[in-house]
Design a protein that fits this description.
about 350 residues, alpha+beta, three-stranded antiparallel sheet, 11 strands
Length: about 350
């Protein structure tokens, strides 16, 4: 039994470890750049350009306006993790219908979030990628543009948010049946949807740093409960995991809101933008859950081949690997708690 136990733990832990190491190695590049254009009059725009930076060097990205536009000399400065420039651009004719390109983006692994604020207080938001580095300035945002911007942003936020993924992973190992999983994930979804909307719209204001520390603490809590369940101890988290998922989901929703506050919401389509972002979060969450169950089925197959022991379903495979996975999740979460608590008191 020792061999499949180790194999099971390795197969479940490997995707998590890879995501952690990849996130650490690419942290500089996955942070998006940000371009904000504010219309001052029909031909003049105020420009804010924020590029990820480290050690006094920024990514080699630039903003290319149409030929009929001329820009003033930019004023730049380095801040923590970014280089920020401001300037004004004046065009001979209207900028609407013209194309703006981010140069150098094709050579990176980052994205650019673009927000255009029109003089009538409406806005246009786009997400540019290395394979789609240009956008057309429009005088009105369509629902397809909103979907193309906020749905991938939601998926990216959950899939690159290792702490959120580890919390979901811990919930999967805490529950022991499909009905419980559905109830638990649904409760988590409802909770983070509530606080995501409330925090993004400014109805509640909580500093992000302590929230991130408590999110890490929530992962420690669920990891401990997995060990308790394995040893036969009974608690509310074991009998009603959906309650725990809902309570901590409220905190995770505030964490999700950070990406939306940084990007901004189109004033004339706030409900649509929120809905598509949340759908993106759910699609990312469901794809992660699917990947975990694919890994569990691999564990089932390996256990059967190496020991001739038959596991009837994925839940039995999850129980087989639950203890080492719980210790791995808990250890990483404790490190995050210490780091984030220290950052809060600095």
């Amino acid at each position: 039994m020792r061999i499949p136990l180790r194999l099971g733990a390795l197969l479940i832990a490997l995707p998590v470890l890879l995501s952690l190491f990849a996130g650490a190695a690419l942290a500089h590049e996955v942070r998006p750049a940000y371009l904000e254009l504010v219309e001052l009059d029909p031909q003049t725009w105020d420009v804010l350009w924020k590029v990820p930076a480290r050690d006094g060097r920024s990514l080699g990205l630039g903003v290319e306006f149409p030929a009929h536009c001329r820009s003033t000399a930019p004023h730049g400065r380095f801040t923590e993790g970014a280089y920020i420039e401001r300037w004004k651009t004046r065009c001979d004719t209207s900028l609407y219908g013209s194309t703006i390109t981010i140069t150098g983006l094709e050579s990176t692994r980052t994205d650019v979030l673009v927000r255009l604020l029109r003089s009538d207080e409406t806005s246009q938001t786009r997400r540019l990628t290395p394979t789609n580095a240009a956008f057309a300035v429009s005088d009105a945002a369509s629902w397809t543009q909103i979907a193309a911007t906020y749905l991938p942003l939601g998926m990216e936020h959950i899939l690159l948010g290792t702490d959120h993924l580890l919390f979901v992973l811990a919930l999967l190992f805490l529950v022991r049946s499909w009905p419980r999983l559905i109830a638990t994930v649904t409760a988590f979804t409802i909770a983070h949807s509530i606080t995501l909307a409330a925090a993004t719209l400014g109805w509640i204001r909580i500093p992000q740093t302590p929230v991130e520390a408590v999110i890490a603490l929530s992962i420690v809590f669920v990891a401990v409960e997995i060990v308790h369940a394995r040893s036969g101890k009974i608690s509310l988290a074991i009998t009603r995991p959906w309650t725990v998922a809902f309570v901590f989901g409220l905190l995770h929703g505030i964490g999700f809101s950070g990406a939306l506050r940084e990007t901004g919401l189109p004033e004339n389509a706030i409900p649509s933008a929120l809905a598509f972002f949340n759908i993106g979060v759910e699609l990312g969450q469901l794809s992660f859950i699917l990947a975990v169950f694919v890994a569990l089925n691999v564990v089932r197959s390996l256990v059967h081949k190496t020991t001739a022991r038959r596991l009837d379903n994925s839940w039995q495979a999850a129980q087989l690997a639950s203890t080492p996975v719980a210790y791995l999740i808990g250890t990483l979460a404790v490190i995050w708690v210490l780091e984030r608590t220290a950052a809060f008191w600095q």
